[in-house]
Specification:
This protein has 404 residues and is an alpha/beta fold. It has two domains: 2-147 and 292-347, Periplasmic binding protein-like II (D-Maltodextrin-Binding Protein, domain 2); 151-287 and 363-401, D-Maltodextrin-Binding Protein, domain 2 (3-Layer(aba) Sandwich), CATH 3.40.190. The protein has helices at residues 10-23, 54-71, 83-88, 105-110, 128-132, 166-172, 185-193, 217-228, 239-248, 261-268, 304-315, 318-328, 335-340, 345-353, 370-382, 387-401, and strands at residues 2-5, 47-52, 74-79, 97-101, 114-115, 135-136, 139-140, 143-149, 151-155, 174-175, 200-203, 206-212, 253-256, 273-276, 289-298, 358-359. The strands form four sheets. Strands 1, 2, 3, 4, 5, 8, 15 and 16 form an eight-stranded mixed β-sheet that branches. A four-stranded mixed β-sheet has the order 10-13-9-14. Strands 6-7 form a two-stranded antiparallel ribbon. A hairpin with a 2-residue loop joins strand 11 (200-203) and strand 12. The chain is globular and about 65 Å long.
């Protein structure tokens, strides 16, 4: 564990503040701290403790200085390398705020470790999928600041502008790694959702309940399309093979994530590639999964109102979100921070391509889906049996595995 108290990184904080002042001269002038006035916290001398990683501590340092000046509340930024396990065992030493991926909420919620709070209208400033990632049962349990999702990444020479149809991508060659024949339902998911087929649907009577949706007509439609278009997919494909195919011009586009951005720039040059939204293969919106990081309110916070004020009015402000991007390099969920990042191609283009992305479910049920779904997709592509039969068998198998 490493504790970073306000003032320890003042040189970096000064640089952040200066850069934010420069950003404020543009047409996208950030909102001043505290303008949303969410909680009306009275000035008092208390300590607000935040658990986070090292890059996040750099981003929050300038915000913490301003918060202390405005409210009299000191902020301790405590750097953790295993936030989840330490948070579970924190007992009376729990922080007021914890930063981490939205997937941690599964355990945090079941053990009552985090509390809901109101974003006070700030949700409109963010990618809607990122906000939804922290919403459970109609209550908000976190404010996002960063996101990650896959996109259609194309060589500029093959696809100089966003494709208008899925056929445009087929014409230049579509690559999806199927991991040497073991499958990859995560990267196939935007194609699946373009048929209206999702893994789960929300129970209309309780938004906290997820019902398996794979066995419906939309899922069968995707299965039949996959079988009819098996020639588009190489069962032996893997990352290395795809990279060589792109270099050789055999493939023009690859459904992949920002982790491949540096390779594209090194191989084709900074201007030699672009990331686009995945076009629809089935007529409906293609929606990849979204991974989100954000700030959660501890249920054991000593001063919940001060913690909420810091989350919403400081971290959630435009300058706060820009500071977090500058420190972490992670793709912003905040729309103005994303626009401010337009000179940084990888986070900007992948962020723009994620406008339709949906948060990956935090339910434990999702863990029982991937293997069976991947196996079924590969069996369909190999034409082991009728696609309807293979898909139905897979759906029944998963339903039995997740049965309560």
């Amino acid at each position: 564990m490493k504790t970073t108290r306000v003032g320890a990184l003042r040189v970096f904080a000064s640089a952040i503040i200066s850069s934010l002042a420069f950003a404020g001269c543009s047409s996208n002038e950030p909102t001043p701290f505290g303008s949303q006035a969410s909680s009306g916290t009275e000035t008092q001398s208390e300590v607000l403790t935040i658990w986070l990683d090292e890059s996040e501590a750099l981003g929050l340092e300038s915000l913490a200085l301003q918060f202390e000046a405005d409210t009299g509340n000191r902020v301790d930024l405590v750097i953790k390398t295993d936030i989840a396990n330490e948070f579970w065992g924190a007992s009376d030493n729990a922080p007021d705020i914890v930063l981490g991926p939205h997937g941690l909420q599964r355990g945090f919620l079941s053990d009552g470790l985090i509390a809901p709070f109101n974003l006070e209208g700030a949700e409109t400033e963010f990618n809607s999928g990122a906000v939804q990632a922290f919403n459970h049962g109609g209550q908000q349990y976190g404010l996002p600041y960063a996101q990650e999702s896959i996109a259609l990444v194309c060589a500029e020479s093959a696809m100089p502008k966003a494709p208008e149809t899925f056929q445009d991508v087929v014409d230049v060659g579509l690559a999806i790694s199927l991991n040497d024949g073991t499958g990859d339902p995560y990267h196939l998911y935007p194609l699946q959702t373009s048929f209206g087929s999702s893994v789960f649907e929300v129970d209309p009577t309780n938004s906290g309940i997820l019902n398996l949706a794979l066995g419906n007509e939309e899922g069968l439609a995707f299965a039949n399309w996959l079988s009819k278009n098996a020639s588009l997919f190489d069962l032996k494909s893997n990352t290395d093979l795809i990279k060589q195919q792109l270099v050789d011009g055999e493939k023009g586009c690859w459904i992949t994530g920002p982790w491949s951005g540096a390779w594209f720039s090194a191989t084709f040059g900074e201007e030699g590639w672009n990331a686009y939204e995945v076009p629809s293969a089935g007529g409906q919106e293609a929606t990849p999964f979204l991974e989100v990081r954000g700030a959660m309110l501890s249920a054991r916070a000593n001063n919940p109102s001060a913690a909420i004020k810091f989350i919403v009015d400081y971290l959630g402000s435009d300058p706060g979100q820009i500071a977090m991007f500058q420190a972490t390099g992670r793709t912003p969920s905040n729309l103005k921070a994303l626009e401010n990042a337009k000179d940084f191609k990888i986070p900007y283009q992948f962020g723009m391509a994620a406008s339709n992305a949906v948060p990956r479910p935090v339910s434990s049920k999702i863990d029982s889906v991937w293997f069976s779904l991947g196996e079924a997709q590969m069996a369909i592509l190999r034409k082991d049996d009728a696609p309807d039969l293979l898909w139905k068998m897979m759906s029944d198998e998963i339903a039995e595995a997740i049965r309560d």
